[in-house]
Amino acid sequence: MDGPDTQPEGAPPEASELIVEALRLAAIGGEIVEEMPPGASTRRFFRVRAQDGPTLVAMYAPGAMGGPSAARQATGHGSFLATQSLLAAWGLPVPTIVASVPERDVLFVEDLGPETLAQHLRRCPDSAARLYADAVRLLAQAQAAFTDAPVPSVVTERAFDYDLLRFEVDHFLEWALLARGVVVSERGRATFATAADFLARSVAELPRGFVHRDYQSRNLMVRQAQDGNSLTWIDFQDAMLGPRAYDLVALLMDSYQNFDEQFVQARLHDYLRARGASDYAALRQEFDLITVQRKLKDAGRFVYLHRQRGNPSFLDYVDGAIARARAALDRIKGETPELTALADFLADVLSRGSSGASE
Predict the structure, then answer these.
(1) Which structural domain, as residue segments, surrounds residue 289?
(2) Dihedral, CA of residue 84, residue 86, residue 88 and residue 89, to nearest 10
(3) Which runs of consecutive H residues, i.e. helices, occur in 149-209?
(4) Fewer CB in a 10 Å sphere around the end CB: N or C, the chain?
(5) pLDDT digit string (tens) for 126-165?
(6) How far apart are alpha carbons 336 and 235 in whole angstroms?
(7) Domains contained in the chain, number
(8) Which of 91, 110, 129 is the last residue of a domain?
(9) Within a domain: residue 6?
(10) 192-239, pLDDT tens digit by residue?
(11) Cα within 13 Å of Cα(51), Cβ side
(12) C-alpha torsion sign, points 94, 98, 104, 106
């Protein structure tokens, strides 16, 4: 019988073993320093010290994972490499690729340091306005570069279409409500389905451009520079086509940050100036519509990660995601029957909790 520290004969090697082997195959040498905190994906990250060299980050992402899920998240490293090349060509700050060892599903990139934007803001909250203005400017730069040179690329191979957006909204019903024991009647489910259809169609019909997809404070690294701190993008392998406001929502309605309305408005105006535009009312309408869609999805995803992946670290953000969706819904529901019905549905079912029913 296998002991606790042994591996069954024929079992696949551990990620750490593959990384040590990849260091040898890439002629880098060295050793693992530490495993880095996991994120929401199945990827694993290790800080390694190269032989006679600097520390690097080893990214382990199995290429044979049954293909992308209904969420269309990339597997393996092919999409990361292709998107990194594209962003670098546009002048965006992205990590340098040091070596790729596809036969071990390992990629080595430069070590950007230990501090994400989320971590930096806990230490230096007064830097938020400047760094978020920079983040908005970089996003505008990427969108403009894509618009100016819309050549076929990994980004153009996938999009926030109706099917993906509807899958994401339905994630809320399945995981944030039903999986947590919230009772929803057939009538309530029909109301939600009508609203989900409206949200998915409305967002899918917006003009499409470059979207990072998860452009938030844990996916922006803060690095020291001579003229102050600067940002570097990570976790961009799922980039795709989508509406201009999508990444603005990810950034400014970030579940891990709390910004007041004045801050959000200022950053949206920063974005418009960077794009040479002035249609604030239209942008804000798109922003709030996408906020409803994305934050409902996030609430469901956070529960899913706990129930299906055994990661409870996101549960503290479920209620905040729902609150952001409801606040945006109140701003835009107006005379739209589907959104008004959705607001009423959420008020009802969330007030009843796990013991109530929605009519």
Answers:
(1) 117-358
(2) 160
(3) 162-171, 186-204
(4) N
(5) 999 999 999 999 999 999 999 987 678 889 999 999 999 9
(6) 36
(7) 2
(8) 110
(9) no
(10) 999 999 999 999 999 999 999 999 999 999 998 766 789 999 999 999
(11) 8
(12) negative
